[in-house]
Amino acid sequence: MRAVIDRFEGELAVMEFEDGCKNIPRQVLPTEAREGDVLVFQDEQWRVDVEATGKRKEKIEKLAEELWED
């Protein structure tokens, strides 16, 4: 299972899954997890998918640059 952290609301992380958003207790996520990170649930725990997170951030940065081009 894969999801992206949309935002934190107190002790909950609002995470975007393919089928919609769900609130996940922040305490079950890795301490290094940040908004925008891609997380994978595997072996009964969440982990940050560093490669997928990097690719996602690059794509977003490229789209933002295209918005500001003349």
Q: Could you explain how this protein is built, in words?
A:
With 70 residues, this protein is α+β, with helices and mostly antiparallel strands. The protein has a single domain, classed as SH3 type barrels (Roll), CATH 2.30.30. Helix content is 27%, strand content 41%. The protein contains 1 helix and 5 strands, in the order E-E-E-E-E-H. It has one helix at residues 50-68; strands at 2-9, 12-17, 20-25, 38-42, 45-48. A 5-stranded antiparallel β-sheet has the order 3-2-1-4-5.
User: Strand share of the residues?
Assistant: 35-45%
SSE-based structural type: alpha+beta
CATH class: Mainly Beta
- Total helix count? 1
In total, the number of domains comes to: 1
Q: Indicate the low-confidence ranges by residue numbers.
A: none
Series of secondary-structure elements, N-terminal to C-terminal: EEEEEH
Task: Using the coordinates shown, work out and report the CATH topology.
Answer: SH3 type barrels
Q: Bin the helical content.
A: 25-40%
Rg, rounded, reads: 13 Å
Largest sheet: 5 strands, antiparallel
Provide the spatial order of strands within the biggest beta sheet.
3-2-1-4-5
Instruction: Name the overall outline.
Output: elongated
The separation of the N and C termini measures 40 Å
